[in-house]
Amino acid sequence: MSSELTLEQSTKSFDGYQYVYSHDSYTVDCNMKFGIYVPSIADKECVPLLIFLSGLTCTEQNFITKSGVQRLASKYGFIVANPDTSPRNCNIEGENDQWNFGEGAGYYIDATEGKWSENYQMFSYINDEFYELILSNFNVDIDRIGILGHSMGGHGALISFFKRPSQYKSVSALAPICNVTKCEWTRNAFMKFLGQDENLWKEYDACELVNSYSGPIPYAPILIDQGSDDKYKEDYLFPNVFLDACTKASFPIHLREQIGYDHSYYFIMTFLEDHFKYHKNEFEHSD
């Protein structure tokens, strides 16, 4: 099953085009938008794909307007696709009451509880429908697909990699929420989306998933960047808990503390090229 795409925006940038498309999603049962940068080389041959997952309160616009990704996607010859962070305009009571829950805050999980379960199926949307939509409509090298994200999106990238190892060659993250069962934001959301059984929550916790991961090991340790002055680091993101979990699981990780940086897009744009380099290196060592 494949959705028909509607072109919403087409803007020349560097040697390619920044597009925004919309489509009627059968997974989350609403109209969804996504951004995608396509370099000119993709007109001639299959190229690597990076999927970027954004953080709380974001739409598809934040990343494409604030990060400078177009220059990097052009330079490295990658298609870069970035979906929205949640379903939109579903008219569910309470979905706009909190900044960190509901619209703009889908947490990339599949809800099981009541009124949320029909629309808030973001894990399946990202890793099934959206994934196949990009492969079906753009010139992607299926053996060179990576995923990365920021904050809530970093959480989404990590769990997608651990739960779908056959789909992603590489993963990295910027200031990800690493331990969702401890984070106040996610505990509030998971209680509503998944109910009170915390064993179900663990199925979407990177610190838990790395312990049971049995897929391919990346060529180089996965890259995680974390700003030292990020006000969310200690109480919401828990990078060191994830580092400990990876160490215990003998899973390779490179956690870099970036001195003086906070949680903003200034942090993202500063280190984003390092993540392109990281994924390029992983792609070059594809089997």
From TrEMBL:
Cell location: Cytoplasm
Reaction(s) this enzyme catalyzes, per UniProt: S-formylglutathione + H2O = formate + glutathione + H(+)
Organism of origin: Adineta steineri
Protein name according to UniProt: S-formylglutathione hydrolase
Signal sequence coordinates: none
Biological processes annotated in GO: formaldehyde catabolic process
EC class (word): hydrolase
Family as reported in the entry's similarity comment: Belongs to the esterase D family.
A GO term for molecular function: carboxylic ester hydrolase activity
